[in-house]
């Protein structure tokens, strides 16, 4: 997404815990750790011209809700839910002052469907989906578009051990940013996400037939 936005001529702040990991030429490295709220406040104070906020931070601990570490469960929630919420609270006034702008929250097909061994991640992404819907309704008054991206596996470090089909993250980035540009409030990126979304109407029996 950083590379794509730079190619479109945007000024891009690339947030990371370790500034040395921001290696894309032209990106402005800015330190953010979603588990440290003060770093989020500092990032908002250090900018001023943000018109698009992309909440893309992720963690995947593979933690079972009943037997896994509570610390790991809290990490998932702190990253996906509380972290996204803190970013929204810090940057919403800046978006408003710059004409409204947009927020893109990178969610997951697992926002809609739970896999028991990875329950901590699924619960956190589901909470982030509910948060995204609430933010969309609330921020519309200031003219801010809130877009949810739902996608299955992408070929990134987080899914390096997955052998199933994976989407090209560069392609997903292009299509997601195009959706924001078109003013779409939801972008369902792949067939598995579309299938699960359609199954929501059928309730528990259709989502979990076993």
Rounded mean pLDDT score: 94
- CATH C-level category: Alpha Beta
Per the principal axes of the C-alpha atoms, what is the gross shape?
A: globular
Structure class = alpha/beta
Count of β-strands: 6
Helical residue percent band: 40-55%
The CATH homologous superfamily is termed: NAD(P)-binding Rossmann-like Domain
Whole-number tally of structural domains: 1
SSE string:
HEEHEHEHEHEHH
Span between termini: 38 Å
The spatial strand order of the largest sheet comes to: 3-4-5-6
- How large a portion of the residues is in β-strands, by DSSP E? 5-15%
The CATH topology assignment is Rossmann fold
Largest sheet: 4 strands, parallel
Please, could you describe this protein's structure?
This protein has 210 residues and is an alpha/beta fold. It has one domain: Rossmann fold, CATH 3.40.50. The protein has 7 helices and 6 strands. Helix 5 links the parallel strand 5 and strand 6. The termini are far apart.
Please give a quick description of this structure.
By secondary structure, this protein is of the alpha/beta class.
Task: Please describe the topology of this protein.
Blueprint: H1 2-7, E1 13-16, E2 28-31, H2 37-46, E3 52-55, H3 70-97, E4 102-106, H4 119-139, E5 145-150, H5 169-181, E6 186-188, H6 191-199, H7 203-207
Parallel strand pairs: 1-2, 3-4, 4-5, 5-6
């Amino acid at each position: 997404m950083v590379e794509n936005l730079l190619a479109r001529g945007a000024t891009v702040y690339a947030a990371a815990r370790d500034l040395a990991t921001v290696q894309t030429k032209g990106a402005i490295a800015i330190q953010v750790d979603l588990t440290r709220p003060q770093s989020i406040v500092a990032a908002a104070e250090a900018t001023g011209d943000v018109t698009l906020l992309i909440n893309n931070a992720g963690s995947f601990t593979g933690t079972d809700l009943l037997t896994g570490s509570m610390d790991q469960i809290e990490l998932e929630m702190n990253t996906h839910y509380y972290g996204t919420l803190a970013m929204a609270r810090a940057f919403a006034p800046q978006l408003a002052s710059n004409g409204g702008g947009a927020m893109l929250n990178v969610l997951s097909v697992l926002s809609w469907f739970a896999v028991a061994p990875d329950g901590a991640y699924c619960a956190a992404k589901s909470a982030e989906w509910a948060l995204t819907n609430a933010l969309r309704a609330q921020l519309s008054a200031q003219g801010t578009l809130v877009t949810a991206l739902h996608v299955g596996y992408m070929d990134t470090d987080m899914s390096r051990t997955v052998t199933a089909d994976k989407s090209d993250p560069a392609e997903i980035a292009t299509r997601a940013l195009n959706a924001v540009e078109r003013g779409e409030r939801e972008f369902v990126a792949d067939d598995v996400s579309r299938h699960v979304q359609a199954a929501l109407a059928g309730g528990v029996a259709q989502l979990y037939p076993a």
